[in-house]
Specification:
about 260 residues; about 25% strand
């Protein structure tokens, strides 16, 4: 059973059609890379999955649970959006760390706020917070930043900030981790350290959706590659089929332009 099912998603901004009948599935432990030119709808798709945008039609299922259906108003309650977002972790282009908090607090803050909703929070506060703190330490160690616990974002390089952002997204234990151009704001020499962390997540069977312009990286890390153009899925398949023997002329033209550039 797929961990994620997206069916017939459509999204307009005014008269502009940004997503046009997007459908795909993603198996648990798989990595999907989404490629395509700027403006093809990739980021809007991620934002719809994370309930930062509301599709005009279509449906989204996670672990066979209906999270959104445009024809079912009960799935569109504003009060339920925060809970639904917990199924997804989103790592942004520009890190979005809290500048007033150190690295440790950036990772633990959301978990601490969610913990307060637990019925046994008051009785077990000390143990709950200790577990959150322990997980934050483990995650920072996994991204190679155990020595930066008490540093602030302005004291870190861009690559270090993005690795903190990855640890923060993982702290909430999402079903699916999403990346929106995770290296686009980085200098070339810092890109490698972030891609290395993402590769290690893929090796540990983390379910991921990655919007990227890093073609070689997408080829190496992905189980599935999806090429989008003008709001539609033009082609999807294995990295070998999409990059080496694409079926669609639009895919071939995109890859030729990209590698020539």
């Amino acid at each position: 059973m797929p961990v994620l099912e997206v069916k017939n998603l459509k999204k307009h901004f005014g008269d502009t059609k940004v997503l046009d009948d997007i459908s795909f599935t993603l198996e648990k432990g798989s990595t999907l890379s989404i490629i395509g030119a700027s403006g093809s709808g990739k980021t809007t798709l991620l934002r719809c999955l994370n309930f930062l945008e509301t599709p005009d039609s279509g449906s989204i299922y996670v672990n066979n649970e209906k999270l959104f259906d445009a024809d079912d108003k009960s799935t569109q309650k504003e009060s339920e959006k925060r809970k639904k977002r917990l199924h997804f972790g989103l790592v942004f282009q520009s890190f979005n760390l809290f500048p007033q908090h150190n690295v440790l607090k950036n990772i633990t803050l959301a978990c601490e706020l969610l913990a307060k909703d637990q019925k046994d929070y008051k009785q077990n506060k000390k143990e709950i917070l200790a577990e959150i703190d322990k997980r934050a330490h483990e995650l920072l160690d996994s991204v190679g930043l155990s020595d930066k616990l008490f540093s602030y974002p302005h004291q870190l390089s861009g690559g270090q900030q993005q690795r903190v952002a990855i640890a923060r997204a993982l702290a909430l234990r999402p079903d699916i981790l999403c990346f929106d151009e995770p290296t686009s704001a980085l200098d070339p020499e810092l890109t490698g350290e972030v891609l290395k962390v993402i590769k290690s997540l893929a090796e540990r069977d983390t379910t991921m959706i990655i919007v990227t312009h890093e073609m070689q990286f997408a080829r190496e890390v992905s189980d599935i590659v999806m090429f989008m153009d003008d709001g539609i899925v033009v082609e999807q398949g294995s990295p070998e089929s999409v990059f080496c023997a694409p079926d669609e002329e639009r895919t071939r033209r995109f890859l030729e332009r990209y590698f020539e550039g």
